[in-house]
């Protein structure tokens, strides 16, 4: 069996299609570093001019109405809350001027908590205008999430031991960029790569039937070896992407594994911080389960249907399925947490963002591992059973 494993491994890494997949991933990493990463503009960025404009406007208002009698209730309300807001903004402006990043982080955490408390149930104030672009009907909710996320993140900086910097505050370091990509489309890119790498791992044997008959091992053992080889190849798709990670780290710093990653809890409606290393490891574990899921689907369909198109169609349908039925807050009236396709956006599931947009208390990392892992195990058992039938022999 070891000889067969080595033969499969050699076939896999000399396959021109597989080499092309790795090369494309490398070009994507380079394109990201040269084009996408430099153009990243966070909604909540360090903008001293904006802080000063807010501070000056409120300060002028306070001076113009302070001490006057018979003022309107709304003016009285503004007069009551503006000094607190300005106190935070003044502390942030002074901290940036003094390059006291710890003091800036502390004042910023307080500013976002204070602002969110005033805005979330108010019709008089609004979150950052960038949340209200592109006709976003859930801008207020997204602003509430964004302010809570930022407050939690800066609280983590204050309580942690990380070396603070402007790049860190705007999430531009290599590890923070990786975190953002895991919350975006990086898992889908890796899943698509896994699909292309494993789509022909069984059907390619048609080209060498006589040679394969020289390996006197059972079909199920061959399928096991093929699955292991495809899994190894899928895990190695991280390597081309490391080029981009290293370049960003050299430009903006790498960050460290103790950086706080805010995690939203729908039940408690609050954020707690998770260490960066824990967040990354959870993503790797979840994506590894997904890799196995797609590989087993390819193995199963290859011995049943014997057509690469079927492998691609079913696998891509599973990735795209959530986009078909996705609707915000639908978790409140449907059991979307039972669909494995609801967990494709791995990073968003772990961070709790998917939990937030669906408003589903059960759409969690632990439940997702159970659902996707259970489906993978079931497919493995079915594949093993089917491979015992002579009708579905790998080589006729």
TrEMBL record:
Residue stretches spanning the membrane: 20-37, 185-203, 223-250, 284-304, 309-326, 365-386
Keywords, ordered alphabetically: Membrane, Transmembrane, Transmembrane helix
Name assigned to this protein: ABC-2 type transport system permease protein
Entry keyword annotation includes Transmembrane helix: yes
